[in-house]
Write a structure and sequence with these properties.
By secondary structure, the chain is of the alpha+beta class. It has one domain (2-106). 32% of the residues lie in helices and 33% in strands. The chain is built from three helices and five strands. The protein has a five-stranded antiparallel beta sheet with strand order 1-2-3-4-5. A hairpin with a 7-residue loop joins strand 3 (81-89) and strand 4 (97-105). Helix 1 crosses helix 3. The chain starts with a helix and ends with a strand. 21% of the residues are buried.
């Protein structure tokens, strides 16, 4: 399940950036390193460890290797869906980047990114 959440979250990042670009280019344009993405995704996975997190629950992440950091917060819950808000602070960036995603749980309990 952790891998599926990672893949689905990556899809959200890809939706923010232009389509048909290589992953390395998209991550670079956002200002994150591949290591930043791994740390950020581990934080997202941590929110779902004990099931659906509570609205307002927020976790922070940082990558000491790159100096980038961020937060992920559950903004809202509606039915079997949750709305996440990510603030990413790439090292050296003048301001944060916000990414919003919606995740819905299917009948098997798998969380999927949905439009």
């Amino acid at each position: 399940m952790k891998h599926l959440i990672s893949v689905v979250f990556l899809s959200a990042v890809l939706a923010v950036a232009a389509q048909a670009k290589p992953l390395s280019r998209i991550i670079s344009e956002i200002g994150l390193t591949p290591g930043d993405y791994k740390v950020m995704q581990a934080t997202v996975d941590q929110l779902f460890v004990n099931g659906i997190p509570s609205v307002g629950r927020q976790l922070s992440w940082n990558n000491p290797d790159s100096g980038s950091k961020g937060t992920v917060r559950l903004r809202a819950r509606q039915g079997n869906c949750v709305f996440m808000q990510h603030f990413v602070y790439p090292k050296g960036a003048p301001q944060s980047r916000e990414i919003r995603t919606r995740w819905c749980q299917d009948a098997n309990g798998t969380w999927l990114l949905t439009p």
